[in-house]
Amino acid sequence: MKPNLQAVGMIEFNSIAAGIEAADAMLKAASVSPLLMKTICPGKFVASVHADVASVRASVEAGLAMGADSAVDHFVIPNIAPEVVLALSCSVEIAHGTALGIIETFSAASAIVAADTAVKAAGVHLLEVRLAMGLGGKALCLFTGSVAEVQASASAGSAAVSASGLLVRSVVIPGLSPELLPYIL
Fold it and tell me: Which of 5, 51, 109, 156 lies 20 to 30 A from 34 at CA?
């Protein structure tokens, strides 16, 4: 079952205490529901909510006002691709395309933006969005499809985050060795 979320907003904080305080402000500011509220490496906190676009915007604005001095990155995505929400919860079926795309970012929030943009750019299958746990604060998204689709998605997703300076690297691997996939997922 694919989730149907109108909008998703997230703020990534470099302080756990400030993140929790801002998350409380986010939930009190508008009629939103928590999507993801957790600590991530290295000692950061992400607060993500979902609801209608106006409520999510109001919630994120309240969180930014409360925790502005410790906000690392943030976004509001109207009509987020359902595949992104599933990939965040590792609820996707493994599909093998002819190519693998990887977008690595310096923040968890930017990886979600990259994944959403990549999925919407071409017909790729999103395998995972991995958020900063055991990654030194970095994040990444992995997707498969035909070489052309993966290249188009990798270009679009990378462009979406490179303007903010949060892109580490984007890679397209045509004909990924099938023996490698179980070790990276």
Answer: 156
Gap between the Cα atoms of 90 and 87, Å rounded: 5
Residues 116, 80 contacting (CB under 8 angstroms)? yes
Helices (H), 39-163: 53-67, 82-88, 108-121, 147-162
Residue in 13, 20, 77, 87 with CA at minimum distance from that of residue 50: 77
Cα separation, 135 vs 148, in Å, equals 29
Conformational region of residue 179, where left means phi above 0, alpha means psi within -120 to 50, and beta covers everything else? alpha
Contact in structure between 152 and 94 (CB atoms under 8 Å): no
How many residues does this entry show for the chain? 185
Residue 163 neighbours by CB under 8 Å, 6+ apart: none
CB 79 within 8 A of CB 102: no
Rama region for 2: left / alpha / beta (φ>0; ψ in -120 to 50; rest): beta
The 10s digit of each residue's pLDDT in 130-174 is 987 777 889 999 999 999 999 999 999 999 999 899 999 999 999
The number of beta carbons lying within 10 Å of the beta carbon of residue 17 is 11
Measure Cα distances from 72 to 13, 64, 113, 166 in Å. Answer: 5, 10, 14, 10
d(CA 115, CA 170): 12
**C-alpha 93, offset from chain centre:** 18
